[in-house]
Design a protein that fits this description.
Length: 112
C-alpha cells in the first residue's frame, strides 16, 4: 500500500534552516507529482510546494519563494523540502502528498 513518512521536523530558532524528508513506498514514485503542505496550529492545511515527476518543474506558495526548495531523489523514492530563514509563523505540521495520500506529518516549531 501507499506509504508516506515524513521526518526532519524540529525546534529551530527564527532565521534557522531545516531539511524535511518524505520517504515513500507502494507506488511508482518516479511517475508521481508530489507536494508539500503545512498546517499551522488552529489553522487549515495549506499548500507549500509542488514538484513534477521528473523534478524538472517546481512551484511554491509566494511567501516561501527564494527560501524553500522542493526536490526529489527518484532512485531513493524520497522527497525533500529544504527550508531556510524560517519565521515563527511557519510553525506547523508539514506533510507530503501524492494524489489522495498523505503522510502523518512532521512538526516544525520556529521559536526563539
Amino acid at each position: 500500500q501507499v506509504e508516506l513518512v515524513e521526518s526532519g521536523g524540529a525546534l529551530v530558532r527564527p532565521g534557522g534552516s531545516l531539511r524535511l524528508t518524505c520517504s515513500t513506498s507502494g507506488f511508482a514514485f518516479s511517475s508521481a507529482g508530489m507536494r508539500w503542505y503545512r498546517q499551522p496550529p488552529g489553522e487549515e492545511r495549506m499548500w507549500v510546494a509542488s514538484i513534477t515527476d521528473d523534478g524538472e518543474a517546481t512551484n511554491y506558495r509566494p511567501s516561501v519563494v527564494g527560501r524553500f526548495t522542493i526536490s526529489r531523489d527518484n532512485a531513493e523514492n524520497t522527497l525533500y523540502l529544504e527550508m531556510n530563514n524560517l519565521a515563527p509563523d511557519e510553525t506547523a505540521v508539514y506533510s507530503c502528498n501524492f494524489e489522495t495520500y498523505w503522510g502523518k506529518g512532521t512538526l516544525v516549531i520556529v521559536s526563539p
